[in-house]
């Protein structure tokens, strides 16, 4: 009878949902572990996606480029950016996350990585806009190796995301 009880408990445990997180293909392997960890720790949030943006034409323009003005960025995603945001020579990444309910703010979450690809610091910033359609993340030159992370409407200069606490 004990063995039967153990089998029932084991079967019930295996049937529980695991809350698997399917990440889009543009979230490369070096970033997926840290992002999955963050999303599991914050189940009330999900990754923002191009449907949230309502900016199909703008995305297409960025991906194909604008002649000599902007270089093509074929893999551009409006709510994902990867660059060295803290100037340590290691590529970091940022995402935009949306709440499942309307009571929490949309956030930009920046993962500052060490040379092993682990987050040495995670910085988040609330987005002021109540709607994020036609807004996106962009990367701009900064000082030295450091790149600037910008948030703004397409065809605007954007506003630098403040990485409080980041060195």
What does this structure look like?
By secondary structure, this protein is α+β, with helices and mostly antiparallel strands. It is built from 4 helices and 8 strands, in the order H-H-E-H-H-E-E-E-E-E-E-E. Strands 1, 2, 3, 4 and 5 form a 5-stranded antiparallel sheet that branches. Strands 6-7-8 form a 3-stranded antiparallel sheet, with no helix packed on it. The chain is globular, with a radius of gyration of 19 Å. The termini are far apart.
SSE pattern, N- to C-terminal: HHEHHEEEEEEE
Number of strands: 8
Give the helix tally: 4
Intertermini distance: 61 Å
The percent range for helix content is 10-25%
**Main sheet, how many strands, which sense, barrel?**
5 strands, antiparallel
| Overall pLDDT | 84
Q: Which regions are unreliable across 5 or more consecutive residues at pLDDT < 50?
A: 3-18
Shape, per Cα inertia axes: globular
Oligomer: single chain
- Strand percentage: 25-35%
Features of the shown structure:
167 residues; alpha+beta; five-stranded antiparallel beta sheet; disordered N terminus
Short description:
This protein has helices at residues 2-15, 29-41, 50-53, 56-64, and strands at residues 45-47, 80-83, 92-99, 107-113, 119-126, 135-141, 147-153, 159-160. It has 167 residues and is α+β, with helices and mostly antiparallel strands.
